[in-house]
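cache lookup: miss for this entity combination. No prior model stored, computing from scratch. Input as submitted by user K.M.:
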Amino acid sequence: MPTAIEIFKHLPKKNCGKCNFPTCLAFAMQLANSKAKLADCPYVTEEAKAKLEASSAPPIRLVSIGAGESKFEIGDETELYRHDKKFFHQTRYAIVISDTASDKEAGAKLKRAADLRFERVGQNLAMDMLGVRNDSGDPAKFASMVARVAKESALPLVLMSADAEAIKAAASAARPSRPLIYAADANNWQAMAAVAKELKFPLAVKHDELNGLAGLVEKVRAAGVEDLVLDLCPRDLQQLVERNTIVRKNAVKKTFRGLGFPIVTNACGSKQAVLMALTSTMKYGGIVLLDDLDPAHAIPLFVLRQNIYTDPQVPIQVKAGLYSINNPGGDAPVLFTTNFSLTYFTVAADIEKSRVPAWLLVVDTEGLSVMTAFSAGKLTAEGVAEALRSSGALEKSSRKEVIMPGMLSRMSGKLQELTGLKVIVGPRESSGIPKVLRSL
Amino acid sequence: MVEVPVPREKWSGKIGAVKLGASSAEGGSRQAVEVGGAAGMPFLSYEGLGKRQLLAGEIVDDPSLLTEMATRAFGDAVSDPAEWARKWVQDFHADLICIKLRSTNPEGMNSSSEDAAQTVVRVLKAVSVPVIVYGCGQEEKDARTMGAVSNACAGERLLLGQAEEAAYKTISAAAMANHHALVAFSNLDINLAKQMNILLADFGVKLDNVVMDPLMAGLGMGLEYSYSVNERIRIAALMGDRMLQAPMLCDITSSWEAREATEENVQWGEAEERGTWWEATTGLAALMSGADLLVVRSPRSMAVLREAIDGLRGGQ
């Protein structure tokens, strides 16, 4: 977004007030904060309008696909590294069904896509899309497979065909969802662009070389299609990383604006499909097309995406409450820690390692780690005493004791007073937990 | 014709290359390798690839601490470190061996430092690749063990682990005495990583003897923190921070400790395959964020990672 001063340079400087702001500078300030529309100025020139619109466009276009609850957006990214701010719109995965697939094969893939659904730290991890590929060459056959898939699944679709007639034939079956058309290439781009424009569907554009792709994108845009997704046709993992990086970096650094669109990678038929999906997830991928996805591969892939797209400014929290580790019984000890995910994972892993059955009480500290929470007053003796009561920890364990993080030793007297329990000051580092547990 | 520019960064710094292992001409008995040397962000050939990323196979000398699912392919060899090492290299093409002398733990088997050093000597005889050696994590014992290992393996240029802020002098002295390389460990923080390298430099350890380990958190266990810390370390190094230009080691074996990696659950696919990819995914994230050397537990995930490195380097 340009600054108020940059915008001001392009305004007529008449201070006529017709925009409902007293001066052009005041209007520019409202524009910079997205609180006014440029169209409210009756005197702004077409040239200035075009310039301002271009400079306020996001570096990577936001493209939305699908409709209703399963609709999603890709693009509109501004960073090269997640630690600079965050990655905004996560990579999406599609399972592709051929229109020559038997009834059984198609059914199996549809069930697969529906079953790939897991819950993890409060988020649902799931398959995002289904593709239908026109292998038959027959528009009618393609349309009937699209109709079946659209009927049995609400996931957004990818219509995969090089034939604009086939896309047209399948379009009504795909509605009201807004599918992605895959893809326009050097041979069919005119017909594809015409279909995409008419149907108002987003369009993938592919070329096996970046200069060629930029040229093709120019033509497709001139034909009136703006919602584009780019297939950079990487030959191997190295090209995947390099081309995705070139496209992302040019867009966010504004060294080249012609390829400012999200990226789709077609991993169908590749022996390295899972590696391509993982790599795309870390390196700027928008959509990855896959023949299939084994759950044993899907879970690590989905968890990687969850990790990479986490906002670095907001700590991931685990749910507060009492966790059982190593099948504890009534005589198992109680330990407590914070609900900062990293702290919880470390402590839980160390308790597991000890092989000593134990109850782990996770206290809500708003996602802060032990020392930070203590310093900020989010981890107090009162709070811990309350959590011990409300979580049922005192009924679950008959031992009249609780083990606390070593860094909180200052709190031990107060906690003892409030709970009447024997308070054992644990190790300062989580790695010392097994030793303490074994010595009880 | 539209020309898409290649936005190559003009970095002023470069990752150092550290030599591990020593040939007979250099007083050792193995094939030496170099780790590090990259002149750009990972796997961007137009910025400069550096040496090939290396994969070390993990060996533990206390059989009670194994992850059976990850080490199944070794069969009975897991009870004999030398045989285990031989299998890693011959059957699974490990670039290095990483032996963890957990048996020396005073809380566990409490084997003597001298016996542990002899285990390393046997491993060195069984394979011709460079060897990384860790102790049991107990400070005083590790100081003794690393002293014994350093002397028993003089000239072999081992990579000794690990120097940490609270305990680095004894192990640094042990490494310097026989010209071994050293792992500089820090806990998930770029400033601590730099601080550790400065402490070592002040103590007299030259940076070309140092490989740093910024602690790789496993998939689902804080991986994103490590990913960003690693990236920031690599960027700072390339921007010219001398004290962060050591090659990076990531130990990804802790991936196997995530419950989701190996828990039996019919909805989640086969557990061993999932565990394999859990470790491989952690390894891939380490590589993409700047790791030059990985310590790996399962030969199956090592195979996946080797294929990934081949692909990411475009076959180079």
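stored under new cache key. The mean pLDDT of chain B is 96.
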